[in-house]
Design a protein that fits this description.
80% helix, 0% strand, disordered N terminus
Length: 449
């Protein structure tokens, strides 16, 4: 990549367009992990086993959703290219077909996930005490999968049309509603961990309805039919296959991390659940620049502006580094108090603090990785992203399986696991940076062959 920091680090001609998309996207993205942390804090009042069950079930649900992330990312890239080329109606047509594909995939996720729930919980190493909590949360929350996938597809359409404000409103409203309902169902109505799951179903359903209404209005204005087309569904599924492989490899990393943490003990998986959500909060915040990159790069390449693409990419990488440095400092500042809202268990608190040191140190590297991932995704370079993800997964797995075994206790075992996770982030940064230095990804036009 070109040099990371320019002579004027806080002034650049691309900053306005970057932050017009990145700022609302930032607040939309952090709303999810913030309210997931709220769920963790509420469920944590039920005990260490309930919190561990939330962590195990959460990883299963994230896997079901993450393998369908192309509904958001692939749609953003496709729609933004057509937007840059002046074909707004074509972009909305792609988006409508993406919504229908989301419904089909959501129904399939329920049909597959419900009977296989006990097996998936067991594969993640949940103890007999944690497993019932995990299965209860998993089976209820599965009902929200179609709604969540509709939200993902709808988000991709609107961001491709350079609208980041509507996704912000939907995210804040739905996750705020989820947090309120979680408190009421769990603490007031005493529904236990099931109350947290039902609050998710209701909140995601409301968000999905909002997106369907917004895109329906845009489709009517553009003269686009709301009926699905067989060709559109095939094109959406085909374009998303490479991103599917990418997502699968990334979820393997997350699942192996969770499984290893679970096998280190109940305290370790409970601490890992909190640390992972804090890491996700920080990464989602930096991912705002990456998602802005998807929209901006797609629009520039759709308009045939290679020079603008390179300049905007360089600037977004600079912001990724700077935000990562800021978050590193913030984590160290809050480190003594970070475990307090989640648990009163002294051992779990010590594990959370130890792993957050590693989380803090990886932040600048994470910033570069997230931004470059978004840039190449916006360029439609999904095939490279798929192969790179498989190679980086191969670098991670031996480290995750070996490093914790070298530790003499659960504390150093969990720290070792997070060091292995950092190796994965580093491998991603290297492969993405090598690609961005070249020109093979700079393909122009309304569609990418």
């Amino acid at each position: 990549m070109p040099k990371l920091l320019s002579a004027a680090p806080f002034r650049h001609r691309h900053d306005r367009e970057i932050f017009a998309l990145a700022v609302p996207t930032f607040f939309a993205l952090i709303s999810e992990p913030l309210f997931l942390l709220t769920d963790a804090a509420v469920v944590g009042t039920l005990g260490t086993q309930a919190l561990g069950g939330l962590g195990v079930a959460g990883q299963v649900l994230l896997t079901l959703v993450a393998v369908c992330v192309f509904l958001a990312y692939g749609t953003t890239a496709a729609v933004s290219r057509r937007f840059g080329a002046g074909d707004v109606a074509g972009g909305i047509r792609d988006g409508v077909d993406g919504l229908w594909l989301a419904v089909l995939l959501g129904a399939a996720a329920i049909a597959i996930g419900w009977p296989l729930g006990p097996l998936m919980v067991d594969l993640l190493g949940a103890s007999p005490e944690i497993a019932p909590y995990a299965l209860t949360y998993l089976r209820i929350s599965l009902l929200s999968t179609p709604f969540l996938l509709i939200v993902m597809a709808g988000t991709g359409v609107l961001r491709g049309l350079q609208d980041a404000r509507t996704p912000l409103l939907v995210a804040v409203a739905s996750y705020a509603g989820n947090a309120v309902l979680c408190v009421v169902f769990v603490l007031v109505m005493d529904w236990g961990i099931a109350g947290s799951a039902w609050s998710t179903v209701i909140a995601q359903g409301a968000g999905a309805f909002w997106y369907v209404a917004a895109i329906s209005r845009s489709a009517r204005r553009a003269g686009v039919s709301l009926a699905p087309t067989a060709a559109g569904l095939r094109a959406s599924a085909s374009a998303g296959f490479a991103l599917f492989l990418r997502s699968v490899s990334m979820r393997v990393v997350a699942l192996v991390t969770t499984a290893v943490a679970a096998r280190l003990g109940d305290e370790s998986i409970a601490a890992h659940q909190v640390s992972y959500n804090i890491w996700a909060l920080l990464v989602f915040a930096m991912d705002a620049i990456a998602i802005a990159g998807q929209s901006i790069v797609g629009r520039y390449l759709g308009a045939g502006d290679v020079r603008g693409t390179k300049e905007a990419t360089r600037r977004m990488v600079e912001w990724g580094v700077m935000l990562g440095a800021v978050f590193m400092v913030l984590v160290f500042l809050v480190l003594p108090w970070a475990p307090v809202p989640f648990t009163s268990d002294a051992e779990v608190r010590a594990l959370i603090m130890a792993t957050l040191v590693v989380v803090a140190l990886m932040q600048p590297l994470s910033g570069v990785t997230m931004v470059l991932d978004g840039v190449l995704m916006g360029a439609g370079d999904q095939r490279y992203l798929a192969w790179a993800s498989l190679w980086t997964m191969a670098a991670f797995l031996p480290c995750a399986l070996v490093i914790p075994r070298l530790a003499e206790d659960s504390l150093w075992g969990l720290v070792g696991l997070w060091i292995a996770f950092t190796v994965w982030i580093l491998a991603r940064a290297v492969t993405l940076g090598a690609r961005a230095r070249g020109t093979a990804w700079l393909v122009t036009g309304a569609t990418r062959p």
